[in-house]
Amino acid sequence: MKKRSFWVPVLVGILLVLALAACGEKTGAEATATALAAVTDSPVEHSEPGSNRLGEWAEGSGLAMVARAIDDPAVPDSTGYQPKPGTRLVAVHFELGSLSGTHHGTPHAAKLIDDRGVKYEAVYGAMAEHAEIQSVAVEMGERVSGWMAFELPEDAVPMFLEYKPDVWGRYIELRVSLVE
After folding, report:
1. Comparing C-alpha atoms, which of 126, 101, 104, 117 is closest to residue 157?
2. Which among 167, 18, 180 has a CA at the least distance from the CA of 96?
3. Which stretch of 21-35, 51-65, 136-150 has the lowest confidence by average pLDDT?
């Protein structure tokens, strides 16, 4: 009997120490914000999807992205691309970071949305002055950065960049503003 009574307080003590240690850790939004700040080297602002401004990070489902700059109109690479009549080339510089696990950054999952809600696919090999973002695996704490080009009608106003990859049959959606 004495052996059993000795182990009960020891087990309770161990559980109490583990519980207190867990309470001291950051959880939820605070942990996400800390992880994002570590990835981005910049302060984090939580916002509704698409409610942020150019240069502000959005995060969700273990990913973070930001549109750093917009070049409107962008200079097309005349050797391999010519915009259709009545359109122009718009380039967006964006970064994608992983907050948890590994994510295969797929630039083709990004679309530009204009002021009418029309979504535009990226045009590859179209820019003369900017390096295109590459499709690469992004480990936790890493990020990938580069430019994407989109062909828009002359009167369309770029409003958002949406990143919506299919991850194991589940769509993740991040949206950042292209408005300063």
Report:
1. 117
2. 167
3. 21-35
